[in-house]
C-alpha cells in the first residue's frame, strides 16, 4: 500500500519521540512492502516562533492532503503562566482537530505486568485492566462561546452539544464495545448539567440498536474514584470533551508511565495519531524521553490503514523492549536506554522478526510441498 503521512513534530520532546516512530514506520514499510511518504509541517510554539501562527495554513493543507497525521507534542512553559498571551501553542492543535473534524479521540489503557511496580495502584488492582476511552474531541466547553468583561472581573465558557455530535462519537464507541467485552460506560454529570442529560438520552436511545452491549452510566466524580478503586470494571468509556481530557490523564498513570500511552483522533477524513503525554520541556533534546507512546500511536495508525499484521508487529516489538528492560528513564531510573536507542531496537526487532517469519513460512511451504 502507498500512504501519505503528515508529520508534525511540535514542541519539547515531540521531535525526538516522533523520529522514533518514523524509524519504526520505515522498518514496517520495508519489511511489509509498503510505501510511506512523509511530509513535515509546523504546529505549536515551534510554529509561533517561526511563523507567528500556532497552525500555519501550509500545515493545515498538508494534513488535509494526507492519509494520516503523526503528531508529537504541544506546549511551551513560556505561555503557561501568562494569562495575557492571546496566541498559544495549544490553539494550533485545537484548530487542527476542529478543521479536520476529528470528533473521536480514542485512548486505550492497558497495563503491563513488568511495569506493575511503577503504578500507584497495587498489582492486585491492575489485573484485568484493559479499557478504551472514547473522548468527544470537537465540541463541548472546549469550543463553546467564551466571554470576558471589559475590566476582566467576569468570564464565561459555554458548554454546548447537539444530538448529532453525540451520536457520531457514541456509535463507533458502541461498535468498539461489540468487538471487545461488550460493555460501555457513559461518564457524565447528568445530575447537574443539561448537556449531560442530553448525552444520557441519546446514548440510551442508541443502546437499543446494540442489544449485545451492556450500558451503564456513571457520574464523573464517582468515575474518577472508580478508575482508581476498581479500574478492571471498565471496557469502553464514552465521555464528552473535558471529562475525557481529565479522566484519560488519570487513567494513564495506571500503567506506571504516561510516556507509554498512545491515542488516535479520528473523524471522517484523515486521522491524527499522537502520544497522550505533553511536551515535557525539561527533557527536550536530552534523548531521555520515552518514545513508546508515539510508537504505539504509530501502531494505531497502521491499524487505521487496515494493516493489522503490521500493527501487531510493532506492538510485539514494543512488548519485547519492555520485557527485556530496554526502557527509558521514566521506567527504570538506573539502567536505561536513550530515546533513539529504543527506536533503533524496535525497528531492528521488526526487521529481524519479519525475516524470521518469512524464513519460517518458506520452510512451512516447502514442507507442505514435500
Ligand atoms: C490533550 C491535551 C490537549 C487537550 C491540550 C494540549 C489542548 O491536554 O490532548 O489531552 O486538552 O485536549
Ligand atoms: Mn489532556
Share in β-strands: 15-25%
Distance between the termini: 33 Å
Q: Please name the CATH topology of the largest domain.
A: Isopropylmalate Dehydrogenase
* Distinct helical segment count: 13
Overall geometry comes to: globular
Please outline the major beta sheet.
10 strands, mixed
The chain-level mean pLDDT equals 95
Notable characteristics:
single chain; 370 residues; alpha/beta; Isopropylmalate Dehydrogenase; 2 domains; 10-stranded mixed sheet; two-stranded antiparallel sheet; globular; binds 3-isopropylmalic acid; binds manganese (II) ion
What features would you describe in this structure?
With 370 residues, the chain is of the alpha/beta class. The chain has 2 domains: 1-100 and 269-370, 3-Layer(aba) Sandwich (Isopropylmalate Dehydrogenase), CATH 3.40.718; 104-258, 3-Layer(aba) Sandwich (Isopropylmalate Dehydrogenase), CATH 3.40.718.10. Helix content is 45%, strand content 18%. It has 13 helices and 12 strands. The chain has helices spanning 14-32, 45-51, 57-64, 77-80, 89-99, 123-126, 163-178, 194-207, 220-229, 241-252, 292-304, 308-323, 339-369; strands at residues 2-10, 35-41, 68-73, 104-110, 130-136, 146-148, 155-157, 183-188, 214-219, 236-239, 262-266, 271-275. The strands form 2 sheets. A 10-stranded mixed β-sheet has the order 2-1-3-12-11-4-5-10-8-9, sandwiched between helices. Strands 6-7 form a two-stranded antiparallel sheet. Helix 12 (308-323) crosses helix 13. The protein is globular. The protein starts with a strand and ends with a helix. The relative contact order is 0.16. The model has no long low-confidence stretch (mean pLDDT 95). The chain binds 3-isopropylmalic acid (IPM) and manganese (II) ion. 3-isopropylmalic acid binds at residues 74-75, 90, 93-94, 245.
Amino acid at each position: 500500500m502507498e500512504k501519505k503521512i503528515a508529520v508534525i513534530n511540535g514542541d519539547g520532546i515531540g521531535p525526538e519521540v516522533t523520529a522514533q516512530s518514523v524509524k519504526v514506520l520505515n522498518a514496517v514499510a520495508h519489511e511489509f512492502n509498503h510505501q510511506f511518504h512523509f511530509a513535515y509541517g509546523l504546529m505549536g510554539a515551534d510554529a509561533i516562533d517561526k511563523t507567528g501562527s500556532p497552525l500555519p495554513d501550509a500545515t493545515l493543507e498538508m494534513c488535509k492532503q494526507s492519509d494520516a497525521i503523526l503528531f508529537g507534542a504541544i506546549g511551551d512553559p513560556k505561555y503557561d503562566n501568562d494569562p495575557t498571551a492571546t496566541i498559544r501553542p495549544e490553539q494550533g492543535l485545537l484548530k487542527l482537530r476542529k478543521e479536520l473534524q476529528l470528533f473521536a479521540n480514542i485512548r486505550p489503557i492497558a497495563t503491563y505486568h513488568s511495569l506493575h511496580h511503577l503504578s500507584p495502584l497495587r498489582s492486585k488492582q491492575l489485573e484485568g485492566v484493559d479499557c478504551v476511552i472514547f473522548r468527544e474531541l470537537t465540541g463541548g466547553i472546549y469550543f463553546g462561546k467564551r466571554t470576558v468583561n471589559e475590566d476582566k472581573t467576569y468570564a464565561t465558557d459555554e458548554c454546548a452539544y447537539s444530538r448529532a455530535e453525540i451520536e457520531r462519537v457514541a456509535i463507533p464507541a458502541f461498535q468498539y464495545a461489540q468487538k471487545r467485552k461488550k460493555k460501555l460506560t457513559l461518564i457524565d454529570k447528568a445530575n447537574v448539567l443539561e448537556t449531560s442529560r442530553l448525552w444520557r438520552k441519546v446514548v440510551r436511545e442508541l443502546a437499543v440498536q446494540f442489544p449485545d452491549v451492556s450500558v451503564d452510566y456513571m457520574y464523573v466524580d464517582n468515575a474518577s474514584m472508580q478508575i482508581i478503586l476498581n479500574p478492571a470494571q471498565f471496557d469502553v468509556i464514552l465521555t464528552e470533551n473535558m471529562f475525557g481530557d481529565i479522566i484519560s490523564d488519570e487513567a494513564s498513570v495506571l500503567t506506571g508511565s504516561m510516556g507509554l500511552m498512545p491515542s488516535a483522533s479520528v473523524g471522517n477524513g484523515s486521522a491524527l495519531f499522537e502520544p497522550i503525554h505533553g511536551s515535557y520541556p525539561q527533557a527536550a533534546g536530552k534523548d531521555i524521553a520515552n518514545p513508546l507512546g508515539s510508537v504505539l500511536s504509530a501502531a494505531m495508525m497502521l491499524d487505521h490503514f487496515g494493516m493489522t499484521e503490521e500493527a501487531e508487529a510493532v506492538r510485539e516489538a514494543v512488548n519485547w523492549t519492555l520485557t527485556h528492560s530496554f526502557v527509558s528513564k521514566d521506567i527504570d531510573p538506573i539502567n536505561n536506554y536513550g530515546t533513539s536507542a529504543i527506536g533503533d531496537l524496535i525497528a531492528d526487532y521488526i526487521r529481524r522478526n519479519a525475516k524470521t517469519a518469512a524464513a519460517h513460512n518458506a520452510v512451512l511451504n516447502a514442507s507442505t510441498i514435500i
